[in-house]
Design a protein that fits this description.
This protein is an all-alpha fold. It has 32 helices and two strands. Helix 1 packs antiparallel against helix 2, helix 8 runs antiparallel to helix 9 and helix 14 runs antiparallel to helix 15. The radius of gyration is 37 Å and the shape is elongated.
């Protein structure tokens, strides 16, 4: 303790925690006595008195902690309590002497005093509950990591304690710490810390809101705190930040929602809290990062069937088509294509909406890029049943490009789309003339079983047209690969289509010989026992051919 004389009074210049505790304990009875003598604003003073009466217990609990004298938070808390007690005495004197400046101002001052006492009581309780008092500054022998962990936990505790200005400073320091060691902050976090961060999303200070959402964004991206964020009701303030936050706050809020919207339940909640409209607005006007995150969030939401109509009413179809046309990042276009795929998966009205907004042409232009992705092809696949035959002439060349240059998933989706288009001899001939049959035959050797299956299905459908039959027959590899797909394993889902394709080719003596030489008879016997459709009949045709060949040689 350092004392300094000013006039006739001795002032404590640098009081210790014990000095502050002693002063607070002396001021409580003074404040209570003064408050009880006030005759005006009686209802407000009753509330203040009831709260002042709780302070001694609070001080006793705080001072009984083993680390009471070693922690700066205790000192700061006692300073806040002391200032509040002084204010209570001062206001009581004003009321007793009836020297208040005005009734409304005094009512406001008393309400403010009551809130400060309540805050001090709450903060004392939090100091005890958080356990931060037990983590006093470590001795010099402690590791740097231990000291950093202590520092982080103290900052997290400060987010829950004190006035907005002190929380603002703690939050700024926390953001700086996270730039260097994000893991240390996430490791030290508890649910109460998450709750305090969520509360700061609605602070009056824009910088506090911005820093709070920056930390929350990191938590959401880490993948370990999503449930806490949801349970602490983070969604409504995050949605509000999309509408009225600074550019940085909007970006961090939308990235947070992007991560959290992976859950269908959270996606529904985002819609329920009015999140669709601001997300769509960001897709229209946001920078590249915000646009991409917003498009991804809407893509996640569109995976929930019951909210698709709400999305459509907010204008999502036109916005996603526009992103496909003009999106800044390639990732944004991919999200837009996935969103259109989801929207058109089961709703004919939405399919019509996409078609009327020039969606087919936009998707085809997107697919004509250097590495077509599955989502764009899948969206086209959803739409082919709702377009005219003339439109097929535009779609099929793009599908051929995908079969040549697309990702494995895109190629599989393209073959599946071909199966949907191949519903008449006219469309089958159109597909055959496009040059896709050699690509489908090559796909019979794909590593992915799903790709082999859909390629076999497409060939089995196309080969029923004479022009396509001749092209498949000319390529010996087609028979070889189809026979290999007769393998009876339960995991081989292509075998029924391989049977259909080989049955169509069996009328060719050359193809039949190839089937026999590659072991089709043995496979078909096993498939007949498994009652795979068409396998028994194909086996009979091949064996009949073998018998004829045997007698002709005699």
């Amino acid at each position: 303790m350092v004392e300094e004389r000013i006039g006739n009074e001795t002032m404590v210049v640098d009081p210790t925690v014990e000095d502050l505790l002693l002063q607070a304990q002396e001021f409580v009875p003074v404040a209570l006595t003064k408050a009880r003598t006030v005759k005006v604003f009686s209802s407000r003073w009753r509330v203040i008195i009831s709260r002042l009466e709780k302070i001694p217990t609070c001080l006793s609990d705080l001072s009984s902690h083993p680390c009471f004298s070693k922690h700066t938070l205790c000192k700061e808390q006692l300073q806040a309590v002391l200032e509040t007690l002084k204010e209570a005495i001062e206001l009581a004197n004003v009321c007793v002497n009836e020297k208040q400046e005005g009734k409304l101002k005094m009512q406001s001052d008393l309400d403010s005093l009551s809130a400060k006492i309540d805050l001090s009581l709450k903060d004392c309780g939090l100091l005890m509950k958080t356990g931060v008092l037990g983590e006093v500054t470590q001795p010099l022998s402690s590791s740097v990591q231990d000291l950093e962990t202590f520092s982080v936990r103290e900052l997290l505790a400060r987010l829950q304690i004190g006035h907005l200005e002190s929380k603002r400073k703690a939050l700024e320091q926390l953001v700086e710490v996270m730039k260097d060691d994000e893991k240390a902050v996430i490791t030290a976090l508890g649910r109460s810390n998450v709750a305090s961060l969520v509360q700061l999303l609605t602070a009056t200070s824009p910088s506090v809101r911005e820093n709070a959402v920056t930390v929350i964004c990191s938590l959401a991206e880490s993948g370990g705190c999503e449930n806490w964020l949801i349970s602490e009701n983070a969604l409504p303030p995050l949605v509000r930040l999309l509408e009225s936050g600074s550019p940085v706050a909007k970006e961090k809020a939308v990235i947070s929602l992007q991560r959290m919207s992976i859950s269908s339940e959270t996606s529904r909640s985002i819609v329920g809290h009015g999140g669709v409209s601001p997300l769509i607005e960001i897709c229209k006007t946001g920078d590249s990062v915000s646009q991409s995150a917003s498009a991804c969030t809407l893509k996640n939401i569109s995976a929930v069937p019951e909210v698709r109509q709400t999305l459509a009413e907010e204008g999502i179809v036109k916005v996603m088509i526009n992103i496909l046309n003009c999106g800044i990042l390639l990732g944004s276009k991919e999200y837009a294509a996935e969103c259109l795929q989801n929207l058109t998966s089961s709703n004919e009205t939405l399919r019509r909406s996409v078609i009327s907004e020039n969606g087919i042409q936009t998707l085809l232009a997107y697919l004509d890029g250097p590495l077509p992705q599955e989502s764009g092809v899948a969206a086209i696949r959803n739409l082919v049943g709702s377009v005219s035959l003339e439109t097929y002439f535009k779609i099929i060349p793009s599908l051929v490009h995908v079969l040549k240059s697309g990702s494995v998933g895109a190629q599989q989706a393209a073959a599946s789309t071909i199966c949907r288009i191949a519903t008449s001899n006219e469309t089958k001939k159109m597909i055959g003339e496009s040059g896709c049959i050699p690509l489908l035959i090559r796909m019979l050797e794909a590593k992915a079983s799903g790709a082999r299956e859909v390629a076999a299905q497409a060939i089995a459908s196309l080969v029923t047209v004479p022009r396509n039959y001749r092209e498949v027959k000319r390529d010996e590899k087609s028979v070889t690969c189809l026979v290999m797909l007769l393998e009876p394993s339960p995991s081989n889902s292509a075998k029924k289509y391989a049977v259909s394709g080989l049955a169509a080719l069996c009328s060719s003596r050359k193809c039949k010989k190839l089937m026999i030489s590659h072991g089709a008879v043995g496979y078909l016997k096993k498939l007949s026992e498994l009652e795979v459709p068409g396998s028994k009949k194909l086996l009979e045709r091949i064996e009949k051919g073998k018998l004829k060949s045997f007698f002709s040689r005699k």
